[in-house]
Amino acid sequence: xxxxxxxxxxxxxxxxxxxxxxxxxxxxxxxxxxxxxxxxxxxxxxxxxxxxxxxxxxxxxxxxxxxxxxxxxxxxxxxxxxxxxxxxxxxxxxxxxxxxxxxxxxxxxxxxxxxxxxxxxxxxxxxx
Length: 128
Ligand SMILES: [Zn+2]
What we know:
- The protein is about 15% helix and about 35% strand.
- It contains two helices and eight strands.
- It has an eight-stranded mixed sheet with strand order 7-6-5-4-2-3-1-8.
- A hairpin with a 2-residue loop joins strand 2 (about 30-40) and strand 3.
- The longest helix is centred in the first third of the chain and has 14 residues, at about 10-25.
- The radius of gyration is 13 Å and the shape is globular.
- The site of zinc ion (ZN) has 7 residues, from strand 4.
């Protein structure tokens, strides 16, 4: 599991499902697993999944990577920032799982969404 990811693509209706969950969970954080494929440095998101045993709260701490089933199709984690600030926190990087991290900021639309790799570099997200 190495190599730089230069681009992420996701269908609008798939992304909308994640954003809709973010709106439903507000003012709490929404956390979902990202299922997809990585090929030649491009990640294609197929779906967002509710992690098993997650406890929703106003912090990322309710989520443990140890609770994620071993599944190579899980390529990362997406979560929401009710503050609207899409900068990842130190805690976010401590909880980094997989290869990409997506953060959606309140009020949860495609314009307030950023993707990062494990080094904190932003990855462009192409909405199909
Ligand atoms: Zn966060």
